[in-house]
Fold this protein.
Amino acid sequence: MIKPEELQLARQWLHALRTELGKAVVGQSEAIEQMLVAVVASGHVLVEGVPGLGKTLLARALAQTLKLRYARVQFTPDLMPADVIGHSVLDDTGTGLGRLRVRQGPVFTNLLLADEINRAPAKTQSALLEAMQEYQATLEGETLPLPRPFIVMATQNPADTEGTYPLPEAQLDRFLLKIRIGYPTHDEEAAVVRLVTTERAGHELPLDALQPVLDDVHVMALQRLSGLVKADDRVIDYAVRVVRATRQWPGIEVGAGPRGSLALVRAARAMALINGRDFITPDDVAAQARAVLRHRVTMSPDAQIEGRDIDDLLQAALESVEAPRL
């Protein structure tokens, strides 16, 4: 059970974090909110958007405001699993008795930015599977725990398919949310130009004004509180019915599996905590449904030919499910 003072403190922390992120990431309020959901729910996120919309900026700003260890890996076709997990090197001190020393890769961090993850082949993408699911990595036959909290933020460009490798379904399912970042409004874009170019070289990211507001201890406390948020059986039943509706909805060839139901409740719990509540509502479930499910379903060929949007199909499936009255 969450104490009232813990609930109030959590809301204050998350409000301060949202405010600080807003200093660097202009607009994109939905993306910022969904990143907060991922942090609180201890989930990984796949961010999709064309270049220049602030995907990398969001990751770096989050790491700075949370005072977390941060690593970035630029995924390329020649990237190897050892470049992500790590490898052994010969440590020769001059005695002639060289010993193998394990050098940990960038995955041993708190916030890992996998930039353009779909540019690496499946062999390298799969190197993240164990880390994302079990929070550990196997290096030279030894299983090593990862630092906690551990969050993977992966990015991909939806428009450029040349030289890319689609993510395997097994890996897509490991992401709690898929965030879509769209073009800013005119006023937001003008604000971005002023923020980045005023008294700057123009290519520098506006991160110098950000102050750390939380650290790893705070994040772990928020994640613990998220698990204590109450979920009424009727709301859980609603979340399950929403996910099951995707398995038979026209235009969707492959619906979401049981991990989609788990992710939907986890995200709803995080959303409730962000809003200062110790219980989830059907509105929390509905608000997170598209971000949780859009990467877990596959459109039918006919729907793709017709140019249908997966979010529209999910919204229609969501509206077909009657929400409980609490």
Remarks:
- The chain has 14 helices and eleven strands.
- Residues 49 and 181 are 5 Å apart (CA to CA).
